[in-house]
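Need tokens for this chain, all 220 residues.
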Amino acid sequence: MIRVLLVDDQPLIRSGFRALLDLEDDIEVVAEAGDGVEGVALAKEHLPDIALIDIQMPVVDGIEATRRIAADPALAGVHVVILTNYGFDEYVFNALRAGAAGFLVKDILPEDLLHAVRVAARGDALLAPSITRKLINRYITQPRTTGTGRGLKELTSREREAVTLVAHGLSNDQIADRMVISPMTAKTHVNRAMAKLHARDRAQLVVLAYESGLVAPGSS
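Here are the structure tokens for all 220 residues:
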């Protein structure tokens, strides 16, 4: 059972998402919150698999709530998915850097929402190739963050290759095809790289790949 926490200051949005998610046999909404402070508290209480968090809320917004969840070792199993009305923007970029596993636009189709929740629960990032390209474009005009490449020396050559492919938006199956290995081995390379680089999930791994210079904007 995939346990979901809904955090949004609009009750109508929460009730709509709950009605859809609770229809599924493998998904359960365990709690709702109207702001980031309450959301973080409920995350600690219920330890959901997924926290669907609105990016703009009173008291504490979605970015700060994501940062607090990501910084708490007790919440390492909580995958934050940001909800936004506006698509990819500066807020979403900052949320990904804060530790979000991905983001969804609120007018998403019901079947896409259900798919996204299941993908995030598996620990995969909700970063379509189009979103990855926008992340890359952000780095073209943004100075590289200093000190983010120190963990790269701990990666094996195969782990570095896997991280590079993740940064280009490839799934584990696609990485396996490219590297001529099994999907399980590809997943192992990715998971070990995340552990060595202290990345919570694949979304943060993409950010770290560009920040560290392992992948250059415009490369393929």
